[in-house]
Amino acid sequence: MGLVGIEAVIDAMILKLQTDMPAKVTALNTEYADDYVLADIADSSYYWWMPKIERGAVNIEFPAIVLINRPAGPGAQNPSQIEMHFSVVVDVLVRGESGADVSRRVWRYNRAVKEILAQRHSLADVTTTCTYMGEAQHETTDSRSGDYLHDFGSLWEIMTSETT
Fold first, then answer.
1. CATH number for the domain running over 6-163
2. pLDDT at residue 152 above 70?
3. Whether pTM exceeds 0.70
């Protein structure tokens, strides 16, 4: 028996976002058609570990998406089936010159993430369900450049169900 683990879940989420984000960014830029233009997120700017962002030390390319594994509770189990539950924060990070700019852009990227991952069967090859659970945001200033750094995270509960 081989259960789907968090690595497969994170990898599937990153692949789905990398694949669908360019078209979603284009669609949102067309829909809003204003000064808060979203840039494509480079494939190298999707992180499955927490990059160092502290005391002005920033070692990532913006915009970026960081997927953070959080503890989750157990699922149902019986002799023939087991459920595994995972909790993943998808955190979008942007950098800019004003609070208004970074806020608008981070909200739009977060909307894109939600629209991509909330699609029915968005991660069907790996998971049983992918459920949106809420969000949180944070804003700080890079002490070296004075740039605003803003992040907006959405929380997802992922479930896998497998025959044992």
1. 3.30.70
2. yes
3. yes
